[in-house]
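Chapter summary example.
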Amino acid sequence: MRNVRLLAQVICLLFFCACLHAQSVEEKVRMVRAAAEAGKPKGQYTLGMLYRVGVGVPRDDAEANKWILKSAEQGDPQGQNAVGMMYDGGLGVDRDYALAVKWYRKAADQGLAEAQGLLATMYAEGLGVDKDEVEATKWHLKAAEQGEGKSQFNLGVRYQKGRGVTQDDKEAIKWYRRAADQGQVAAQFNLGVMYYNGQGTARDLFEACVWWKIVENSGDFRVSNNLREVMSRLPAVEVRRALEKADELAKQIARRVDEKSNTSSFR
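The structure predicted for these 267 residues follows.
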């Protein structure tokens, strides 16, 4: 669940290291270790993540936790968030949701969008805190306003279903669109549903077709029946236009996701 986020960080780190020659990886590890041993929190966090996944160093959860905790104790929000995930997922420690919430909150209070989204999830599920839909919505909103795609999707769901907010389809479709533009497939699907049903907007089969085609092109074929049904209701010329628009939008979304990924780094 929350460990999906850790996996995303790990994949990003692996991709970064795979782009380097073996000697470069060794040099990078030496530089990171020197920074960590000098007390630099970003170096400590990065060294901890290297130990977490075993890149350039043996995989070692104990070492990972030691360095990540050092970073967190110095106030580094990424380190604090990683300690939260450590307790949330039981990574080399006993799982402790209350401690996870404590560290997520520290990072969230510093404005780290990912931590805000994770804290929102803890409130939504009642893990380590009393379940509180209003608090969950509050933290998802903070993260969503910073561009956190998962929180944008969750905010769309909350407005659509009236969880922790007054039900509002217009707000739901707004947040689904923002999340969809960041490659959140569930948001793309829900956006198609909103257009198909005319929720929060005028009914628009053309737009439903566009977004469901983007979902199908992502490899999620559960939408295929919906897509075929809506295509059967549109004139052939409109279907062709919708498919062309879906293809162009998908390329734009992919570029946006790549750019965002490239700006994320383990400093």
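To summarize the output: The mean pLDDT is 92.
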